[in-house]
Write a structure and sequence with these properties.
By secondary structure, this protein is of the alpha+beta class. Helices cover 59% and strands 7% of the residues. It contains 38 helices and 11 strands. α18 (465-482) packs across α20 (497-516). The longest helix is centred in the first third of the chain and has 24 residues, at 138-161.
Length: 840
């Protein structure tokens, strides 16, 4: 039976040490929420805030009561710091081995209960750190506006106070009310930080500590104040060689007044710019002002690489604060410890992003070079302890990148002591992180802890079951990658169903690892091998086999969306081999992505997958609760993958949809697949309020095999249902009438029809009997031009369906408008030819 894990948190390391020492001498009592039976094996995980790493102790329950559980050490148990790798058991895979892992090991691993990988928590931060808030919404501007005004008053007070002796009434007047106003404008913000920022374009003073992102002082103050005092504030920062200054809200009134007096002392200028920082720092220390942190030019650290300016300023400030702390008088060891913790929390707070936290962490060894009274590990521990616990896994992602980079460096230069020291420091940092993640039970930490194990930072036996599961999955995936052909062959040649199922479970377990590592070539090889091995599998096995990929559709969707085009090409091959599960992946992407280019690609891919895509489309179109654009894309795919007229019935439900683009696509599917009632639907859409839909319907008349005589009658009614005289101001209806007559004339089976001829002639007569006076008006406006188009369409239609009455009308029309004579002659020739053909 596996031991019970019990986490015991102590307020300090000395308490932990005392408990452990007492446990060495005999049994100890623990108050547990749930008493454990006697002889129960337990694993004690002892941790304290200032411990470099947790202590792990093997123990056993010797006695239990309602209130306490008495435990004793297991023989030989002592302190075990999380550090070492366990020895690999027999059969454990080794990618350098000549063959795959033993079947027994595979069978043992896949016999475990399958676990879903822990979903990554939704990050509460942007992909990239926000360096400065350049646009403020009304609420942000309202919140920070008083702070900007106060900063101008501070600049004014410092400049004016410098003109007077400390005892002069003018000095007191300059700072009057400034402290009380500072308390008001700060609200619940713990400190205000002003930082000088130099870019190629300009030098700026940036405010941090109030909003989520820093804000330029230029954006906060009115033009008048900015023009007067901002340049003087810049001049002050430059003259004092001041890089940043932080003022804590909990500063006392006396310390605040002293701070203003010190920073405005004109005697400082007499010491020279290079000495101003030292003089002002000494004065702040002399007055025991711990609530103000000022960093000057001579406080800059010697960085080994370029760092973001916010990180560089934060590191310089921490180095300065830690160096000065022992110089303040009357500060107890406990207060010094609290000041360190508070200082670090205040310094880290404006960074606000895991990448920036990591930049600070992995470079904190530079601070240790300057703060000689503190060990590197002490600084590292203070920093890790001050970070928000829920952001540790996200921060560690960037720390892992630094660790990998340093490992490459040390491999190329094994004797480089500086890199070795940095590696050791990062390993200590990650170990400290691990302690917090485990004790705080942080979600989304499985991958983080698995990585620590793989880099020999934590040991296997001290990991939770879900993390062990991930590690075993990764081991198996690496072995499958290295010996893919052997695994496929093992599956294909399985002697019985049970053996085949071992491999199926194995493949199902390693697929998410390959997706996570973007090992598309392995997925491609695996999917190809499995498809080729399908022959001979029973229906039940086939159903289970399809589940190799089906549980991981969400992973595949995210991978496809985040992949570049070459990667998507490889994934397309994988998805095509998966059959319907692959179609579901593409369908899910089509349903959820907002990327139009990606949607177009997926539509093309689905259209190329024919029968499987048809099944998905039918499922989607049968679900009327889907978004309209999903139905539209599905209809688009349907007419490309289906030739079955019955499938056209699926489009019928969308012909009356509110969205015209969906109606248009439903009509296109109707025309392409030609279901039994296609003619009726097209005729109905000739009256659609959307011009694109009714024009497509008119075009559709010529594409359908119109067989129902009623269809022609319905079209004729649409042309003639409004008398021509009423259409004089209805330009769109004239265009529609012309188009409908052109469509009728194009029907292959249209022939002479007395009813059709008479109705067209009756309707068109007013247009053709107005003589030259009327026809001369045709050239005057677009309305007249539309009437000419109607006449031309009528000429063509009458040439197909007309008789003697049409010939008489057409001759009159040609005499009235010679421009139409050519078309009239052709129409009359067609009528005469049709009469001869009928007579013969």
């Amino acid at each position: 039976m596996k031991p019970h894990l019990i986490i015991v948190k102590f307020v300090a390391a000395d308490r932990l040490e005392a408990f452990h020492d007492q446990l060495q001498t005999g049994p100890r009592d623990l108050a547990l929420k749930r008493p454990l039976p006697e002889d129960t094996k337990i694993l004690l995980f002892l941790t304290a805030p200032d411990m470099e790493a947790p202590v792990v102790v093997n123990a056993v329950v010797t006695q239990h009561t309602e209130d306490n559980t008495r435990i004793a050490l297991v023989n030989g148990s002592g302190k075990q710091i999380i550090s070492a790798l366990p020895e690999q058991s027999a059969g454990t895979p080794n990618s350098n081995a000549p063959g795959p892992a033993s079947f027994e090991w595979i069978q043992e691993v896949v016999s475990e209960q399958e676990r879903e990988a822990e979903s990554e928590p939704v990050p509460g931060f942007s992909d990239k750190p926000v360096e400065q808030n350049k646009t403020l919404d009304p609420d942000e501007r309202e919140r920070i506006r008083p702070v900007g005004e106060w900063i101008m008053k501070l600049a004014k007070a410092i400049l004016r106070t410098g003109y007077y002796d400390a005892s002069h009434p003018g000095a007191a007047e300059a700072g009057q009310g400034l402290y009380q106003e500072f308390q008001q404008v700060m609200g619940d913000c713990p400190e205000l930080l002003l930082t000088i920022e130099e870019t190629r374009q300009q030098t700026d003073i940036v405010i941090s500590g109030i909003l989520d992102a820093p804000v330029s002082v230029r954006t906060l103050v009115g033009k008048g104040s900015a023009a007067l005092y901002v340049p003087k504030l810049f001049e002050y920062f430059e003259k004092k060689k001041l890089l940043s200054i932080a003022i804590k809200k909990d500063i006392s009134a006396d310390h605040f007044r002293a701070f203003v007096r010190i920073m405005s002392d004109p005697k400082v200028d007499q010491s020279g710019a290079r000495e101003a920082g030292r003089v002002l720092t000494a004065a702040l220390v002399e007055h025991n002002i711990t609530e103000v942190s000022a960093v000057f030019d001579n406080d800059q650290l010697d960085f080994e690489k370029n760092l973001p300016w916010r990180v560089a300023i934060a590191m310089q400030r921490l180095a300065k604060d830690l160096m000065l702390l022992p110089m303040f008088s009357g500060i107890s060891e406990e207060k010094a410890r609290k000041l360190k913790q508070q200082s670090i929390r205040d310094i880290l707070r404006p960074l606000r992003h895991p990448k920036r936290f990591n930049d600070f962490l992995v470079n904190c060894y530079i601070i240790a070079d300057y703060v000689t009274h503190m060990k590197s590990s002490e600084i590292e521990n203070l920093l890790v302890d001050a970070l928000p616990a829920d952001l540790l896994p996200a921060t560690a992602v960037y720390t892992f990148e630094e660790l990998d980079w340093l490992n490459e460096k040390i491999a190329a230069d094994p004797g480089n002591q500086r890199i070795l020291e940095r590696l050791e420091g990062i390993r200590r940092i990650l170990k400290r992180m691990a302690g917090h993640v485990v004790t705080e039970n942080i979600s989304g930490a499985q991958a983080f802890l698995a990585y620590l194990y793989e880099n020999e930072i934590v040991s296997f036996e001290h990991l939770s079951e879900d993390v062990r599961y991930i590690i075993k999955s990764r081991r198996m995936a690496e072995d499958v990658r290295a010996h893919a052909d052997a695994y496929i062959e093992g599956f294909a040649s399985a002697a019985d169903d049970d053996t085949a199922m071992v491999y199926i479970r194995c493949f199902r377990r390693v697929v998410p690892v390959f997706i996570e590592n973007r090992q598309w070539e392995v997925l491609e090889s695996l999917s190809r091998g499995l498809v080729e091995s399908r022959e001979g599998i029973t229906d039940r096995d086939l159903e289970i086999f399809d589940q190799v990929f089906s549980p991981h559709l969400d992973h595949l969707c995210r991978a496809y969306e985040n992949a570049d085009d070459p990667e998507r090409d490889r994934l397309d091959d994988v998805l095509a081999r998966l059959g319907y599960p692959g179609i579901r992946v593409l369908g899910k992407i089509l349903s959820e992505t907002s990327d139009r280019k990606l949607r177009a690609r997926v539509v093309d891919r689905l259209a190329a997958l024919a029968e499987d895509a048809r099944k998905w489309v039918i499922d989607v179109l049968s679900d009327l609760d889907r978004p309209w654009y999903i139905h539209r894309n599905s209809l688009m795919i349907l007419r490309q993958v289906s030739t079955d007229a019955e499938d056209g019935r699926l489009a019928e439900a969308f012909l009356n949809h509110d969205h015209p683009r969906l109606r248009l696509e439903a009509l296109a599917a109707i025309v392409a697949l030609k279901p039994p009632k296609a003619e009726r639907y097209v005729i109905e859409l000739l009256s659609d309020p959307d011009s694109r839909v009714n024009w497509r319907a008119m075009k559709a008349i010529t594409e359908l095999p119109v067989k129902n005589p009623d269809t022609v009658d319905q079209i004729l009614d649409l042309i003639t249902d409004v008398p021509f005289d009423h259409l004089k101001s209805a330009f769109p209806r004239l265009k529609q009438a012309a188009a409908l007559m052109t469509a009728l004339a194009a029907l292959p089976d249209i022939s002479a029809s007395t009813r059709l001829e008479s109705q067209i002639l009756e309707w068109i007569q007013p247009m053709g009997t107005g003589g030259k006076k009327r026809l001369s008006l045709f050239k005057r406006n677009s309305q007249a031009q539309a009437e000419i188009h109607v006449l031309k369409a009528a000429i063509g239609l009458l040439g197909k369906v007309g008789g003697d009455f049409s010939v008489s009308f057409l001759k009159d029309l040609a005499r009235a408008n010679p421009d139409l004579a050519g078309q009239v002659d052709q129409a009359i020739d067609s009528i005469e030819k049709a009469k001869k053909d009928t007579a013969s």
